[in-house]
Design goal:
Distance between the termini: 60 Å
Structural class: alpha+beta
Low-confidence stretches: 1-11, 72-110, 129-148, 213-228
Strand content: 25-35%
Shape: elongated
Number of strands: 32
C-alpha cells in the first residue's frame, strides 16, 4: 500500500526481484513493510538477493547500481526481511517468495586485475593456474631433428610461398633449420603429374630419392594396384583423407590434397596452402578419391589449355577411366585425369603473410568460407601480432608455431571482434587477445530469434586442421546474440572447444535441458549483468542451475551491475581475465 510513501526513504519503494515476475514484491526501506503490489506509485529501485545473502540494487530509471541504497533519515537502510506481505482487502492471497538460485560454493576465484565482475558462482574443477605459463610457451618447443638430414630435405615451390619437405620423416617447414641446405628440388611432370627430383649439386634428375624406398612391404599395395584399383594414390593425384579414427587424427577426415609420393608404405598427402601446406603421412587405406562437390582448379591441360586455372566442383568419379568429372562455371562437364586437378580448401582469400606488429583499425582480413551446401559465407580473420615474424624466428623448429583460436560471435548489430571502436583497440584486453590468439569473427547470417546456422561449425572444423592452429585450444565466445550462439554451437560440437565464454547471453527456454546436458563437462565462463533489461539475468539463471544439476563443476559465473550495451567493453576490453581463464583449459 502507498500510505507510507511520505515517510519512506526518498519516497521510494524497492522492487525485490524473485524467481519470476509473479514472485516479485515491494519493500519500503523506511518501515520494512512489504506488499505484493503498489497502487499509487512506481518503484525506482530494484533489488536481488545473491546466494551469499548480500543484496545489490539498481535504479530502473537512471541505471545507477549500488551495493547499498542511498542513505536516508541519517542512516543506512536495512535489507528486506523475508516476511509475509500485507494482504489488502480483495487482493489475491500472496505466494511465498522464492529465494535466488543457490549454487554450491567453489574453491577458485577470479581475481585478475581489472576484472569488473563479482563471482556469482565459482568453478570447483579448474586446472592449476600455473598451467597458463606453460601454455603460453608451448608454441616455442623445438622438435627432435635427430632424424632429419640434409640429404633428405626437398625444396618445393608450387604455391605462394616455397617450403621444404623432409622425405625421411615426412615433416614440412617454411624455413630450414639453421645451417641446413636442401639437397633436392622437386618438380611435377606435366605429362602425368608425378614428382621427380633434381639433385641441386649435380643437376641430375631422378624419379626417386636414393636410399628411400618408394613403397614398403607392409602397405599391401603393389605397383599394378596403384595404377588400377588405387589409381588415386599415383603421385600428383588429387585425393582426400578418409576413415581416420584416433582422437588426434580424425579431424583430417574429408581433408583434400595432392599425393606427393608413396614412401615407406605411406601415402604423403599435401594439404592446401591455406592450411599451411601440411603433409599427412597416411596408410593407403586411409586415402580415397575426392568426394562429390569438392572444389578443384584445373591445371596442366595441354589439349584444352584455355581451361587451365578454371575453378569447378567434382561431379562424379569415373573409376573405369581413372578420372574425375568436373563441373565448371558454365555448367559443362569435363573429364580430367586425377593429376590434372588441384583440390582447394574451403577457406578463400586468406593470406598468412598479412600480419602486423601492432593493432590497426579495420586490419582484419575479409575471408570467405564455402559451406558443404556450396553457399559462400563471410568471416573476418586476425592473425596474432608478429605472426609471420614468430614463424620466421622458429626456423629451428620442425614443427611450426601453433596458436590458440578464439571464435567470436557478434551481437544483433553485427561487427567483428576488433572493430567495436578505435578506442577499444588500445585497451589491455584487446591488446592481450590480439597478440596471443588467432581470432575468427564469422558474419552471422541469422537473426537473434534463430538457432545459429551450422556452417560456422563447418568453418571451425576446417580451421582445426590448419597447421598454424592449436586444435587443442579452440575457444568460443560471443556477446548478446553471439552469447546465444555460443551456447548453441558449443552444444552442437562440444568436442571442438576447450572452453566457452557466453557474455550477456540468452537462450531458448525450451532448449535449457538440452544445452545443459550437452555442456555438462564444458568449462564455461558466463559473464552477465544483473541490470540487463535486454537479456535478463533471471532467464540465464535457469540454464546455470541446470548445468550445475547435470554435474558441471567447471562453470564460473561472473556478475556485474552494468548496462547491456557496455558488456562487450566490460568483458573483453577492461581486463585480460576472460582470455586467461580460457587459456587455462585445453581439450587435449
Amino acid at each position: 500500500h502507498c500510505n507510507v510513501s511520505g515517510n519512506s526513504l526518498m519516497g521510494l519503494w524497492v522492487r525485490v526481484v524473485g524467481e519470476s515476475e509473479e514472485e516479485s514484491y515491494f519493500w519500503d526501506p523506511a518501515t520494512n513493510k512489504v506488499v505484493w503490489e503498489l497502487e499509487c506509485q512506481d518503484s525506482q529501485w530494484a533489488a536481488r538477493k545473491l546466494p551469499d545473502g548480500r543484496f545489490y540494487f539498481w535504479n530502473e530509471i537512471t541505471r545507477e547500481t549500488s551495493w547499498k541504497l542511498p542513505p536516508g533519515d541519517g542512516g543506512q537502510p536495512r535489507g528486506p526481511r523475508r516476511v509475509e506481505p500485507e494482504v489488502a482487502v480483495g487482493s489475491p492471497t500472496p505466494r511465498t517468495a522464492v529465494a535466488a538460485v543457490a549454487f554450491p560454493k567453489g574453491s577458485h576465484e577470479l581475481e585478475w586485475a581489472g576484472w569488473p565482475f563479482s563471482s556469482y558462482h565459482k568453478a570447483v574443477d579448474l586446472p592449476d593456474l600455473r598451467r597458463l605459463a606453460a601454455c603460453e610457451k608451448s608454441w616455442s618447443s623445438k622438435a627432435d631433428l635427430s632424424k632429419s638430414q640434409a640429404a633428405t630435405w626437398v625444396e618445393l615451390d608450387e604455391g605462394e610461398r616455397p617450403y621444404f619437405w623432409d622425405a625421411a620423416t615426412g615433416t614440412t617447414v617454411f624455413d630450414l633449420p639453421s645451417g641446413t641446405v636442401a639437397k633436392w628440388r622437386a618438380f611435377k611432370s606435366n605429362e602425368h603429374g608425378r614428382y621427380y627430383y633434381e639433385n641441386m649439386e649435380t643437376q641430375k634428375c631422378v624419379w626417386e630419392i636414393p636410399g628411400l624406398s618408394r613403397r614398403g612391404a607392409d602397405d599391401g599395395v603393389g605397383e599394378e594396384a596403384a595404377s588400377e584399383r588405387d589409381w588415386w594414390l599415383s603421385p600428383g593425384s588429387a585425393a582426400m583423407a578418409y576413415g581416420l579414427k584416433t582422437q588426434d587424427s580424425e579431424r583430417y577426415n574429408g581433408q583434400v590434397g595432392q599425393v606427393l609420393a608413396i614412401e615407406g608404405g605411406h601415402a604423403l598427402l599435401k594439404l592446401p596452402d591455406s592450411l599451411a601446406g601440411s603433409i599427412l603421412r597416411l596408410k593407403p587405406r586411409f586415402v580415397r578419391p575426392l568426394a562429390k562437390g569438392t572444389i578443384v582448379t584445373l591445371h596442366g591441360l595441354s589439349q584444352t589449355a584455355a581451361l587451365n586455372g578454371e575453378v569447378g566442383t567434382v561431379d562424379d568419379v569415373d573409376h573405369d577411366q581413372f578420372r574425375y568429372r568436373v563441373k565448371i562455371r558454365d555448367g559443362s562437364l569435363k573429364s580430367v585425369k586425377a593429376n590434372k586437378v588441384i583440390p582447394q580448401s574451403r577457406l578463400w582469400f586468406l593470406d598468412l603473410r598479412a600480419s602486423c606488429s601492432s593493432l590497426q583499425w579495420r586490419y582484419e582480413q575479409e575471408c570467405t568460407f564455402v559451406g558443404s551446401d556450396g553457399h559462400h559465407h563471410q568471416f573476418r580473420l586476425h592473425l596474432p601480432l608478429e605472426f609471420e615474424a614468430t614463424h620466421r624466428e622458429s626456423r629451428d623448429a620442425v614443427v611450426a608455431p601453433k596458436w590458440p583460436l578464439i571464435v567470436y560471435l557478434h551481437g544483433n548489430g553485427g561487427g567483428s571482434f576488433l572493430i567495436s571502436s578505435k578506442r577499444a583497440l588500445r585497451t589491455v584486453g584487446l591488446q592481450f587477445a590480439a597478440s596471443r590468439f588467432v581470432i575468427v569473427s564469422p558474419v552471422c547470417d541469422w537473426s537473434w530469434r534463430d538457432i545459429p546456422r551450422q556452417w560456422v561449425t563447418e568453418l571451425v572444423a576446417e580451421l582445426r586442421t590448419a597447421g598454424w592452429i592449436d586444435h587443442h585450444r579452440v575457444y568460443l565466445t560471443g556477446c548478446s546474440m553471439g552469447g546465444m550462439g555460443t551456447w548453441e554451437l558449443s552444444a552442437a560440437r562440444p568436442d571442438f572447444y576447450a572452453a566457452i565464454a557466453p557474455v550477456a547471453a540468452y537462450h531458448r527456454a525450451e532448449r535449457t535441458d538440452h544445452l545443459a546436458m550437452r555442456l555438462r563437462a564444458m568449462p564455461v565462463l558466463a559473464a552477465h549483468s544483473n541490470a540487463d533489461g535486454t537479456c535478463p539475468m533471471l532467464e540465464e539463471e535457469k540454464l546455470w542451475q541446470q548445468l550445475a544439476e547435470h554435474g558441471n563443476k567447471k562453470l564460473h559465473i561472473s556478475v556485474g551491475p552494468y548496462d547491456h550495451t557496455s558488456m562487450f567493453d566490460r568483458s573483453y576490453c577492461e581486463s585480460t581475465a576472460l582470455y586467461e581463464w580460457l587459456l587455462m583449459s585445453s581439450s587435449g
